[in-house]
UniProtKB/TrEMBL annotation:
<dbReference type="InterPro" id="IPR029044">
    <property type="entry name" value="Nucleotide-diphossugar_trans"/>
</dbReference>
<feature type="domain" description="Glycosyltransferase 2-like">
    <location>
        <begin position="353"/>
        <end position="479"/>
    </location>
</feature>
<dbReference type="InterPro" id="IPR001173">
    <property type="entry name" value="Glyco_trans_2-like"/>
</dbReference>
<feature type="domain" description="Glycosyltransferase 2-like">
    <location>
        <begin position="6"/>
        <end position="135"/>
    </location>
</feature>
<dbReference type="Pfam" id="PF00535">
    <property type="entry name" value="Glycos_transf_2"/>
</dbReference>
<protein>
    <submittedName>
        <fullName>Glycosyltransferase involved in cell wall biosynthesis</fullName>
    </submittedName>
</protein>
Length: 715
């Protein structure tokens, strides 16, 4: 039998796909073929499968070698090939049934030395096929049936990929010029294909999808390219050397340089291992770009598909590896890089100190502590402040402290949340500080994720969205996602809270983030120490926003905030004026700095009003009337002191505020007696009432007088 096509198949550990590959070759409509299979030292059943096919079909020839890579295997097959044309296939891919016949017929009809055909990518996971446009850029080719490199010198090397398996190649051409594959593990076909494309006088295109390129496997060449990260550069250097020695380079330089740039960025991006990626980065930056002819070319030299690659080339040229990875790595690569950079560094101080303030939470404490001690960030200290618990909380703490040396327990008399928290903050030695309330819990990756983000951007604090939850009677958890802000554009970007007072509109909590310890200490940021009071985290929260220069909020929910603990201060109806005392404390702190106070005072009042409304809904009904009278006076005083900007309020809250200030009795009737279902309608009615108008007039005269006095004082 005269062999029309020799199919050369390098085989290495592909037992899962090998039969499909072999069947696609042996069932070709073109029967006059030989199939040379070269086992490259497989350690699975691949060789056994090859022997089975060799016994069944005399066209199958099996060769073996030690593991040297596909390049060496293909050369071994070339050495015995008898076919008029050569076809190559990777052993995890497969042919369409008429591929060889159609490609061979095209070559014979056009007397072509090379036939290039189209490729379909076959996704192993989804079983979907997608046409690979990049491997068949017909628009770059001349409008003729047969051509050579001289007909398309600016695109000959970057239009049809450097794959051997999407081409049928004349055996005579290969023998005449002694063309061989490079015996390297990756990109071993580029020199072979480039040599054939440059030396062939007659190339033809077949606009049919004839080969399936399997993707989505875990063990293919691309998945293990970190083992030989510089092989592709060896191939590109060799191709350039070939072009220069044969006086081709000047004619096809632009095509080669564009191919080289795309190849460099693609190969570096495809490497997941950080150290392997760094080896490529260092080689390219050192002299790789220069050797490849990329250095010195301006942006216009590169084709449109390379515009982004050119930007990356510029970034590599001007950055160190750390900077580059932070800007350009994939999410997994970036994380691995940050872990290597920040978590592997040994230090005498913990990465994060976690403060847990505790008072009578025996029902929830173990769940909380389990979530903290099992954090993926292991370099932490856990400071538990027992504020005079009278239940089993202290017993639970002792058990955990005995089992984990990272736990520090402070047992003190009951003095309140603020004092306990400040003791914890004073004891914290970590680079960053986090807070976990003892009836809440946190996912195991929370502190590692937040720490890496804080280090990456050198943040004073980083905070994230969170969940609130209650446990239903049947034991099911009911979750509510809470965004820190409704403005999507504010997430995942560094901002300066000290210059952005509108950030005080974000949802207030101290526990969904971490704070740089040095930042807290330099700005003396601590909690209000009023014995027995609640909501003392408000002052701490506002201080962090007023003083921080670099912060970020993340649109990822981590923290799990319990809302069904009956002993929580949130659910304490007797604590009436704790919030008011806290805001007096906050004003005293901020007003000591005139510039700071003037910047934040309007948003301070906005925040205060919203928290007063929260308090009004929370407290016992018997206190509501007097509370409304008191906060009405307080808000009128804020307006009189030029601390109130009503334009910051929503329409609904502005109407509520106006009613509260002008007619607190009517406000009480609406909010606490009639209910709120018809609130908007009643607000509109009262706005037009005589009582409301009189109230506005009562406020109008003193405000005008005060403004006049202030203007006269300035003169």
């Amino acid at each position: 039998m005269t062999v029309k096509v020799s199919v050369i198949l390098p085989v290495y550990n592909v037992e899962k796909y090998l039969k499909e590959c072999l069947d696609s070759i042996l069932n070709q409509t073109l029967q006059e073929i030989e199939v040379i299979c070269v086992d490259d030292g497989s350690t699975d059943r691949s060789l056994e499968i090859l022997r089975e096919y060799e016994k069944k079909d005399k066209r199958v020839i099996v060769l073996t070698q030690e593991n040297k890579g596909a390049g060496a295997a293909r050369n071994k097959g070339l050495a015995i090939a008898k076919g008029e044309y050569l076809s190559f296939l990777d052993s995890d891919d497969f042919f369409a049934s008429g591929m060889l016949e159609e490609a061979y017929r095209r070559c014979v009809e056009k007397k072509a030395q090379i036939c290039v055909y189209q490729v379909l990518r076959y996704n192993e996971k989804t079983k979907e096929t997608v046409y690979d446009k990049g491997s068949f850029k017909k628009e770059n080719a001349p409008r003729k049936d047969v051509f050579c490199y001289k007909d398309m010198p600016d695109h000959i090397l970057d239009s049809f990929q450097n794959w051997a398996w999407n081409k049928l190649i004349s055996h005579e051409l290969v023998k005449k010029y002694h063309i061989k594959f490079q015996e390297i593990f990756r990109t071993n076909d580029f020199l072979f294909v480039a040599s054939c494309m440059m030396l062939a006088d007659r190339i033809t295109l077949l606009e049919k999808k004839l080969v399936y390129y399997r993707i989505g496997m875990s063990n293919n060449c691309q998945a293990t390219n970190y083992k030989f990260p510089l092989d592709f550069l060896t191939a590109f250097y060799a191709v350039k050397d070939f072009l220069e020695k044969n006086n081709f380079y000047s004619a096809v330089e632009r095509s080669y340089v564009n191919k080289a740039l795309a190849g460099c960025i693609y190969n570096m991006n495809s490497i997941g291992d950080v150290q392997a990626k760094k080896a490529v980065f260092d080689e390219l930056k050192k002299d790789g770009f220069k050797k490849l002819g990329i250095e010195g070319k301006n942006e216009e030299y590169f084709y449109n598909y390379n515009k982004n690659n050119y930007k990356i080339f510029r970034e590599i040229s001007m950055s160190d590896f750390d900077e580059f990875m932070i800007k350009n790595g994939s999410r997994m690569e970036k994380r691995q890089f940050l872990q290597n950079k920040y978590l592997q560094v040994k230090s005498d101080i913990p990465k994060v100190s976690i403060v847990v303030p505790i008072y009578n939470v025996e029902d929830y404490l173990e769940e909380c502590l389990e979530s903290v001690v099992r954090q993926t960030l292991e370099d932490i200290e856990i400071i538990c402040i027992n504020d005079g618990s009278t239940d089993r909380s202290m017993e639970i703490l002792k058990t955990y402290a005995a089992a984990d040396a990272r736990i520090i327990v402070v047992d003190k008399k009951n003095e309140g949340y603020g004092i306990g928290m400040n003791i914890g903050l004073d004891k914290a030695t970590g680079e960053y500080v986090g807070i976990v309330e003892p009836d809440d819990y946190v996912p195991l990756n929370m502190f590692e994720d937040l720490y890496l983000k804080a280090k990456e951007y050198e943040l004073d604090f980083v905070k994230a969205d969170f969940y609130r939850f209650v446990t239903a009677a049947n034991g099911n958890m009911q979750l509510t996602y809470n965004h820190l802000t409704g403005m999507k554009e504010k997430y995942n970007v560094v901002f300066n809270p000290s210059m952005e007072p509108e950030a005080l509109t974000y949802v207030m909590n101290t526990w969904s983030g971490i704070y740089k310890n040095e930042f807290l200490r330099e700005n003396h940021i601590r909690h209000h120490e009023t014995p027995g009071a609640s909501f003392q985290d408000n002052g701490f929260w506002i201080q962090t926003f007023c003083y921080a220069k670099r912060a970020m909020i993340l649109d990822i929910p981590y923290y799990m905030n319990r809302r069904d603990n009956p002993n929580s201060s949130v659910n304490s109806p007797e604590k009436v004026y704790c919030m008011n005392e806290e805001y007096k404390y906050i004003k005293e702190m901020l007003s000591g700095n005139t510039e700071l106070w003037n910047r934040f005072k309007y948003y301070y009042t906005w925040k205060k009003f919203n928290n007063y409304m929260f308090t009004l809904n929370r407290i016992n009904v018997k206190f509501k009337h007097q509370y409304i009278l008191d906060i009405s006076q307080e808000m009128r005083q804020a307006e009189s002191d030029y601390e109130l900007d009503k334009s910051l309020f929503s329409d609904m809250n502005r109407k509520r505020l106006d009613m509260l200030m002008a007619n607190p009795e009517a406000f009480y009737h609406l909010e606490c007696i009639s209910g709120t279902s018809n609130l908007e309608r009643r607000v509109a009615e009262l706005e037009n009432s005589t009582t409301m108008k009189v109230g506005r007039m009562v406020m109008y005269i003193p405000i005008k007088i005060k403004k006049f006095i202030r203007r006269m004082g300035k003169k």
